[in-house]
């Protein structure tokens, strides 16, 4: 009971300090938490305005300062995990001694529930746009050099465009550049890139506008959001992924991470629901990966196949799932991730409960 009470307690308020050398200014955030990483802090600085948002459990701690002197564009972020300390090292433009760090800007030094913090956006440049299927493209965006952000696996961001005078915002899930290591990322000057697989709906509000952007144009990208935590994958033996259409996007990084970083993993099985063969995202990469890694299997299910299709057909159903979701043993640690159109996900979760998967064994991606 004591542990319960402690677990529910709000994290204690972080604090910050700063120090300088001739050429550097270091801002130190003391989170008073141990489970922090480079993903925990999002830094943006533009001209003299410096912003660092630290995510601590369900809370957001903001440093927001108008710097007293100019700094260079590039900076570094370090995390000392065992003491919960984050260090942001800025390079002075001129080697003079600063009397103060600067003046507080809006909400500086606030520690508030994350849901009340609002989303911060920075402008990112479209670097490339590559066809993946007849309607889905791989978009590559470049973060500004003045931003540090790492989107945690399984989380999404919001993209924002101004369309006929109105700001329109939609969520998208970053993916890896590919599923296979031999599809090398193009060598580009820094590694500040985010990739998205996005389906363009001709009658949609947002995606046609996004598709009209030329390389070099800008789109705003928010801080990450979402409740998936990779800790749920620790010691996992069987991972089942149920994806429909672009509901495949959160599975990409989960799949990559599971196959490279979970030693206990025995099997990953993806059941991928699409309308037709032409709609299957990264089909040949998935088939190659299944061929190369015997722990990975993929099964395609089509809801509107042509007469030539000899594979599985139909919508998500008890028959499809009970055959597919075979546990290694009653005791094996299992997770089922599900994502797709809301009726698909709702039906899937219901069917999983009927098949005796517990709440802890299911992660559904929803809005
Ligand atoms: P919308 O204007 O929303 O329209 C979508 C389709 O519905 C169009 O075909 C349109 O004609 C039709 N439609 C619209 N209104 C109606 C109506 N009233 N009746 C019938 N039909 C209608 N998508 C991706 O491609 N990639 C991702 O990585 C991705 N990640 C997501 C993550 C999250 C957490 C969520 C919730 C969604 C994600 N999506 C993703 C979906 C994405 O956010 C948008 O919903 C999608 O891109 C459609 O946007 P749109 O404005 O172009 O289309
Ligand atoms: P789609 O229309 O191409 O359909 C793909 C498959 O989904 C179909 O073949 C069918 O098997 C299944 N499906 C569709 N409608 C269904 C229904 N009413 N009942 C049962 N099954 C159904 O899909 P799309 O256009 O690629 O849309 C993908 C959806 O995934 C969007 O709604 C998008 O918002 C959602 N999505 C959510 C997230 C998230 O994190 N929450 C991430 C990515 C995509």
Notes on the structure:
The chain has six helices and 23 strands. Helix 4 (283-292) links the parallel strand 19 and strand 20 (296-302). The protein has three domains: 2-116, Immunoglobulin-like (Sandwich); 121-222, Translation factors (Elongation Factor Tu (Ef-tu), domain 3, Beta Barrel), CATH 2.40.30.10; 230-364, Nucleotide-binding domain of ferredoxin-NADP reductase (FNR) module (Rossmann fold, 3-Layer(aba) Sandwich). It has a seven-stranded antiparallel β-sheet with strand order 14-13-17-10-11-16-15. Strands 3, 4, 5, 8, 9 and 12 form a six-stranded antiparallel β-sheet that branches. Strands 21-20-19-18-22-23 form a six-stranded parallel β-sheet, with helices on both faces. The protein has 367 residues and is α+β, with helices and mostly antiparallel strands. Bound molecules: flavin-adenine dinucleotide and nicotinamide-adenine-dinucleotide. Nicotinamide-adenine-dinucleotide binds next to helix 3, strand 19 and helix 6.
What would you say about this model in short?
This protein has 367 residues and is an alpha+beta fold.
Radius of gyration (CA) equals: 23 Å
Order of helices and strands: HEEEEEEEEEEEEEEEEHEEHEHEEHEHE
| Number of beta-strand segments | 23
Which stretches of 5+ consecutive residues score pLDDT under 50? 1-7
Structural topology:
Elements: H1 2-8, E1 15-20, E2 24-30, E3 41-46, E4 49-56, E5 59-67, E6 71-80, E7 85-92, E8 102-104, E9 110-113, E10 121-131, E11 136-142, E12 147-148, E13 157-163, E14 166-172, E15 174-175, E16 193-199, H2 207-212, E17 218-222, E18 238-244, H3 249-261, E19 267-274, H4 283-292, E20 296-302, E21 312-313, H5 318-324, E22 334-339, H6 342-354, E23 362-364
Parallel strand pairs: 18-19, 18-22, 19-20, 20-21, 22-23
Antiparallel strand pairs: 1-2, 2-7, 3-4, 3-12, 4-5, 5-8, 5-9, 6-7, 10-11, 10-17, 11-16, 13-14, 13-17, 15-16
The protein binds flavin-adenine dinucleotide (FAD) and nicotinamide-adenine-dinucleotide (NAD).
């Amino acid at each position: 009971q004591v542990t319960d009470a402690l677990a529910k307690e709000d994290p204690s308020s972080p604090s910050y300090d700063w120090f300088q050398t001739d050429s550097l200014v270091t801002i130190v955030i003391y989170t008073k938490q141990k489970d922090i990483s480079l993903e925990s802090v999002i830094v943006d600085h533009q001209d003299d305005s410096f912003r660092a948002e630290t995510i601590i459990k369900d809370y957001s701690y903001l440093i927001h300062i108008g710097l007293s002197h100019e700094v260079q564009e590039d900076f570094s972020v370090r995390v000392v995990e065992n003491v919960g300390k984050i260090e942001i090292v800025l390079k002075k433009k001129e080697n003079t001694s600063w009397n103060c760090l600067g003046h507080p800007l809006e909400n500086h030094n606030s520690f508030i529930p994350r849901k009340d913090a609002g989303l911060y956006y920075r402008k990112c440049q479209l670097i490339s746009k590559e066809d993946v299927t007849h309607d889905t493209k791989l978009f590559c965006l470049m973060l500004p050099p003045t931003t540090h952000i790492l989107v945690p696996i399984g989380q999404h961001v919001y993209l924002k465009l101004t369309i006929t005078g109105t700001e329109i915002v939609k969520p998208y899930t970053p993916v890896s550049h590919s599923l296979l290591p031999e599809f090398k990322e193009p060598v580009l000057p820094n590694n500040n890139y985010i990739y998205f697989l996005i389906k363009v709906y001709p009658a949609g509000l947002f995606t046609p506008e996004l598709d009209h952007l030329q390389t070099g144009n800008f789109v705003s990208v928010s801080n990450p959001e979402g409740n998936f935590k990779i800790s749920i994958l620790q010691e996992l033996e069987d991972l089942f992924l149920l994806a429909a259409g672009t509901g495949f996007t959160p599975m990409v990084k989960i799949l990559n991470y599971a196959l490279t970083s979970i030693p206990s993993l025995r099997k990953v099985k993806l059941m991928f629901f699409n309308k037709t063969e032409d709609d299957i995202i990264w089909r040949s990469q998935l088939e190659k990966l299944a061929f190369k890694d015997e722990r990975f299997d993929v099964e395609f299910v089509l809801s509107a196949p042509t007469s030539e299709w000899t594979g599985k057909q139909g919508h998500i159903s008890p028959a499809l799932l009970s055959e597919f979701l075979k546990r290694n043993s009653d005791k094996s640690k299992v997770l089922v991730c599900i994502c797709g159109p809301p009726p698909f996900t709702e039906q899937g979760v219901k069917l999983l409960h009927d098949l005796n998967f517990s709440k802890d064994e299911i992660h559904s991606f929803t809005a």
